[in-house]
Every structure is written in structure tokens, then in C-alpha cells.
Amino acid sequence: MHICVVGAGYAGLVTAACFAEFGLKVICVEKDTEKLHTLREGKIPFFEPGLEELVKRNAEQGRLSFSSDLRRGVRESLVIFICVGTPSREDGSVDLSAVDEVARQIGESLDGYKLVVTKSTVPVGTTRRVERIIRECSQGAYQFEVASNPEFLREGSAIEDFMRPNRVVIGAESDQARAILKDLYSPLYLIETPFVITNIETAEMIKYASNAFLATKISFINEMANLCEVIGADVHQVAKAMGLDHRIGPKFLHPGPGFGGSCFPKDARALAHFAREAGVSLELVEAVLRVNRQQRERMVEKVERVLEGVEGKTLALLGLTFKPNTDDIREAPAVYIADQLLVKGGILRAYDPAGMKNASLVLDGKITFCEDAYEAARGSEALIIATEWNQFRNLDFGRLKKELKRPLLIDLKNIYEPSKVREKGFEYIGVGRG
Ligand SMILES: NC(=O)c1ccc[n+]([C@@H]2O[C@H](COP(=O)([O-])OP(=O)(O)OC[C@H]3O[C@@H](n4cnc5c(N)ncnc54)[C@H](O)[C@@H]3O)[C@@H](O)[C@H]2O)c1
Predict the structure, then answer these.
(1) Ligand 1 midpoint to CA 330 (Å)
(2) What's the Rg (C-alpha) of the chain?
(3) Residue in 69, 81, 84 to alter for ligand 1 test, most ligand atoms within 8 A of Cβ
(4) Is 232 helix (H, G, I), strand (E, B) or coil?
(5) pLDDT (tens digit, 9 = 90+) per residue, 212-225?
(6) Which SS3 state, helix, strand or coil, does residue 17 take?
(7) What is the pTM of this model?
(8) Do 51 and 133 belong to one domain?
(9) Contacts of 177 by beta carbon, 8 Å cutoff, 6+ apart
(10) DSSP code of residue 59
(11) Which domain holds residue 257?
(12) Average pLDDT of 295-301?
């Protein structure tokens, strides 16, 4: 079967490469000429473990190709996945202009039956809107259908998440659409992946409810951490014991500087917004977002408090991405914290294994980018860990002590055991650790 994936971003490129790996013939359409050029050279325009090899192999074996020509993509395919960005607007609503544009182009390119699938995270009602736009632009000349198939992959483990998902959600109206989508995902039947087959609105809603719930867990444990800090309890132990309760589970109970990235903040804001428009106030989701904003600010206050002000002080910042194993800095708490520390007069030396190129687009000229953690530590009055990259979990404290002006570790991701760090002659400040 031939399929078309529109948008070669974090979600689209993984989708295209993984479907090609399933044996399908995939044409991936990208409008950014620079990205397209990179892809055609066999490289990928961002960092995602394993993706370059996967893209290269499938391109070489003729199953994956790249184009800027959506008309060709539509004409050569039975199924078209829309994977373009759906960023937040100022008021929290979703900017659907890229989705609308693709829908218009699909409508103008139809030449026979097509199944158009929204994989981008879109507010409930958007897949119907796509259907309306295509119908208007194709003037009813051809039969087509729409479906929703939200994507749950996580940056940093995107290929594994796509290849071995917890579930596949399909929102479709007809037996034909359901059968086509089930067929595309047939390799996942062999590994007994659960399929949730539902209507379009429910499928769209599942994605938002899932992300909002995960964001809620994070804001919840961050609130508990803030209380633990004041009353002398250790949130690490609290979270561990809570997680052992099977009804709760251990995941997403790690306190820190709050959630970031291109999905949780944007999707929680969008959910709250489209709920409000539907006349429903989502008090909990609004609170989750508020707690998250405050959490980042608390981290800045924490650094200021420990150092009794940061003006004129040199600080080492480890981690700039919103999570490890990605170069994505969209809404990264680390970038917010860096920005605020700069505003307060701090001098920053930063290191991130993959995020410095993107970070330089927003912080260039304002901070010093370093080769590694030790260079960042040189002459600094504190070492701040803001992203839990594996390579930060086993730092050489002897070496750090020689580089740092003051042996102070501010561990905003709680990756170290406080007593062990103190044994090495360091002051240790974590999040919610009494
Ligand atoms: N990033 C993730 O981990 C993730 C996970 C699940 C779902 N999603 C969702 O997937 C969608 C895409 O997210 P992303 O992170 O991949 O975004 P992204 O910004 O990395 O990628 C979007 C891509 O679409 C391209 N594009 C825009 N308009 C186009 C057009 N008319 N024709 C062809 N290409 C076009 C852009 O140039 C860009 O390369 C969003 O709705 C997001 O919420 C993302």
C-alpha cells in the first residue's frame, strides 16, 4: 500500500520511517526546503536516537521518499496522514493554519478515493473541519473519508514507542476506513497491541485526556514536593511508596522543574481552551497549568535563595532540552530558568549533549556554551542540573570540585542521592527533599 505522511517533524518523520519499516511505500511531504534537502542527503534535521539509520535504510531500499509536492503525495497514495505542527496561540487555543492549509491542498489534489487521517494532536472537531475543507476544495468531485489516529510517541524513544505502542487509537466512521487503518498497523497485531476503535471525536479526545492526565501527575507530585520541602519530608520516598500502589503506578511521579516540551503544556492549554468554548470549565486542568508555571518560577527562586542572589555570579547549567535524548527545547523549563537567571544578573555556562544548537537560537550571546559538564563548572558558584541526561547521573565529583568555585549541587531533577553527594564534600539542594 502507498501512503503519504505530511510534515517531516518529530512526529511525522518517525511515522513515515516506521510505516516504511512495516513494508509500506511511504512518501513524506515536507514544505521546509532546508529540511527536505537534509533528508534527501540521508540525514535527519533533528536528534532522535536510531532515526537516522531507520530513515537511511528505508530510503535506500526504496520504501521511503521525500518530496515537497503534496499533490504528488496525494495522487500516489491511498492514505494521507496529516502530521504538521499544531502550536499554541497566545490565548491557549490551537493554531490550525498548517492543518487547514494541508486540507485545502489535499482537496485540490484529489483524483479518487482517499482516506485522510489526522495524526497531529488536534482539538475535538478538527478532523470534521478537515473533512469540510476537503469537500469544499474538491467540490464533491471525488469520494474520500477522514479518520483520527492520534500519535502517542515520546521524543527520545519515538521509534520504540511507534513500533511497540501501549495502544493504537483509531477513530473512524466506516468499515472501509477502519479496515484500511487496521491493515496499515497489521504488524502490531502480531505483538498483540491493543486497538481502540472508536468514533472520531472520542479518538481526538483520548489524546488530550491522556496528556492532561500525565501532566496532572507531574503537577501533583511537584505540589507534594513543595510541601515536603517545608515540613521536612522526602518526596522521593513519598513518590516511591505511592508508586508501589498498583492503582497509582510509579511513572510520572518525579518532582522537578515542571513539564515542558512541545506537547504537555500546549495540549493542556488547548484542552482547557476548547472545553471553555464548549461551556465546560476544566478546573483541574487549569490548576495543573498554573502549578506548572509556578514550579519553574520556584526553581529560579530556589537558586536565588541558596546563593543569596545571583547577580554577578557564575552558574553552571547542565541540560537545556525539555527531557533527555532529544534536541527539542520547546517550552523547556531549563531554558526558562536560564532566561530568568540571566534577567536577575546571573552569568551562565551551559552544557547539553544535544540541545545547544537549538538553545543557541534563543540564548546565543547571552550564555557560554561549553564542551562538557566540567567546562561548564569551571569557576561557577553552583552546578544546576535541569535535565536528567544519563551522562549527568555519573559525574566525577572530584573533578567537579576542582573546577567549581563552590561545591554546590542544585539538582532540579533529583537524580542524585543527597547523602552520597554530601559525602563527597558537596552541598546538595534537591526538590522536595526535606
Ligand atoms: N513531537 C512529539 O513528540 C509528538 C508526539 C505526539 C504527537 N505530536 C503531535 O504531532 C504534530 C506535529 O508535531 P511535531 O513535534 O512533529 O512538529 P514539528 O514542528 O516538529 O513538525 C511539523 C512539520 O510539518 C511541516 N509542515 C508544516 N506545514 C506543512 C505543509 N503544508 N506541508 C508539508 N509540511 C508542512 C513543518 O515544516 C515541520 O517540519 C503536533 O500536533 C504534535 O502535537 C507530537
Answers:
(1) 13
(2) 23
(3) 84
(4) coil
(5) 999 999 999 999 99
(6) helix
(7) 0.96
(8) yes
(9) 115, 145, 147
(10) H
(11) 232-429
(12) 98
Decide: 96 in ligand 1 pocket, CB within 6 A: no
Residue 9 CB less than 6 A away from ligand 1: yes
Instruction: Give me ligand 1 centre to Cα 86, in Å.
Output: 7
Crossing angle of helices 126-138/97-109, nearest 10°?
Answer: 40
Residues 277 and 193 in one domain: no
State how far the Cα of 121 lies from the Cα of 353, in Å rounded to an integer.
28
Burial 241-273 (b: 16+ CB within 10 A, else e): ebbeeeeeeeebbbbbbbbbbbbbbbbbbbbbb
H-helix or E-strand spanning residue 29: strand 25-29
Q: Which residue has cell 469540510? A: 132
Domain C-terminal end among 183, 198, 213 = 198
Flag whether 207 is in a domain: no
**What angle (nearest 5°) sits at the alpha carbon of residue 38, between those of residues 50 and 334?**
60
Give one word for 47, left, alpha or beta, with left for phi > 0 and alpha for psi -120 to 50.
Answer: beta
Of 152, 179, 198, the residue that ends a domain is: 198
Q: What's the average model confidence in pLDDT over 123-149?
A: 97
pLDDT at residue 434 above 80? no
Q: Are residues 314 and 404 in the same domain?
A: yes
**Residue 98 CB less than 6 A away from ligand 1:** yes
Beta strands in 211-333 (DSSP E): 314-318
CA–CA dist 358, 356 (Å, integer): 5
Cell 465546560 belongs to residue = 280
pLDDT tens for each residue of 73-97: 999 999 999 999 999 999 999 999 9
Read off the amino acid at residue 55. V
Q: Residue written as cell 485545502?
A: 104
Q: Tell me, what CATH number does 324's domain have?
A: 3.40.50.720
State the Cα–Cα distance between residues 135 and 166, nearest whole angstrom.
34
333-366 burial, b at 16+ Cβ within 10 Å, e below that, comes to bbbbbbbbbbeeebbbbbbbbbbbebbbeebeee
The count of domains in the chain is 2
